Backbone:
């Protein structure tokens, strides 16, 4: 499945990673019908924020509550690898829920998208659109 993402969304993801350096940034991807419409940064509450991320549970609960009330759907999550590649790490693979969500992973200069499927991460293609 291909996603659409605007240049502004990609730029925001990269800016979040820069702002959080040397820690991992994280947040929620929101939208409808495979279109990422919003990047919502949230607090990284992991014990070791330089090596892993954990999305603030309250922020995640609020995002799901808003979606149920007719707001944008929670499509997935994003986080950065401050000095690593834009691909799932061993920690990511170990902590994945295998729930079909989309993960955007931000490396030093790239953003990649992945589906967290039953058998592990699968790379997703995306199209950059104006907006």
Residues:
């Amino acid at each position: 499945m291909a996603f659409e993402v605007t240049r502004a969304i990609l730029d925001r993801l990269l800016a979040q990673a820069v702002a959080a350096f040397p820690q991992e940034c994280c947040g929620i991807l929101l939208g409808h019908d495979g279109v990422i419409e919003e990047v919502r940064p949230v607090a990284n509450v992991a014990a070791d924020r330089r090596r892993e991320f954990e999305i603030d549970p309250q922020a995640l609960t609020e995002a799901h509550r808003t979606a149920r009330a007719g707001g944008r759907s929670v499509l997935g999550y994003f986080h950065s690898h401050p000095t690593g590649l834009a691909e799932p790490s061993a920690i990511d693979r170990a902590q994945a829920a295998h729930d079909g969500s989309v993960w955007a992973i931000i490396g030093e200069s790239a953003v990649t998208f992945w589906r967290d499927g039953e058998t592990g991460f699968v790379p997703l293609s995306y199209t950059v659109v104006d907006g």
In short: The longest strand covers residues 35-42. The beta strands are 3-6, 26-32, 35-42, 73-80, 102-106, 111-117, 120-124, 126-129.
